[in-house]
Amino acid sequence: MYAVIRTGGKQYRVAPGDVLKIEKVAAENDVVEFSDILAISGEAGKFESSLEGAKVTGTVLGQGRGDKILVFKFKRKKQYKRMQGHRQAFTEVKINEVLVNGKSFKA
Q1: CA dihedral sign of residues 37, 42, 44, 48
Q2: pLDDT digits (tens, 9 = 90+) for 5-48
Q3: End-to-end Cα separation, the chain, in angstroms
Q4: Which residue segment(s) compose the domain that 23 sits in?
Q5: How many domains does the chain have?
């Protein structure tokens, strides 16, 4: 049993019990709900035809910032060098439940 959700401009394949790092989201009471569902599969090779009211809920385990990525720009013979660092903020989420067509799949 798994679902494909879209959040933060990316798509994730999630199943109940999975822990994943997504783009930082605001969560109220440490509960996050994903309603942008692209596909749900209850058994191998078969997908749900109707995704009306489908949602995925999860619990926020923590928030933080990822490893530093260095961006270095250089043009030879022009005396041009630029170095910039970036750390992307993330939210760590544990998927609790996938709900579709009145059926609930829990961890």
Answers
A1: negative
A2: 999 999 999 999 999 999 999 888 999 999 899 988 877 778 87
A3: 10
A4: 2-106
A5: 1
Closest C-alpha to 21, from 91, 95, 86: 91
Instruction: Report which DSSP code applies to 79.
Output: T
Q: Which two tokens stand for residue 21?
A: 């790092």
Q: What tokens were used for 72?
A: 């270095």
Tokens 């009306």 -> residue: 52
pTM for the model: 0.82
pLDDT at 7: 94
- Which parts of 11-76 fold into alpha helices (H)? none
Does the pLDDT value for residue 61 go beyond 90? yes
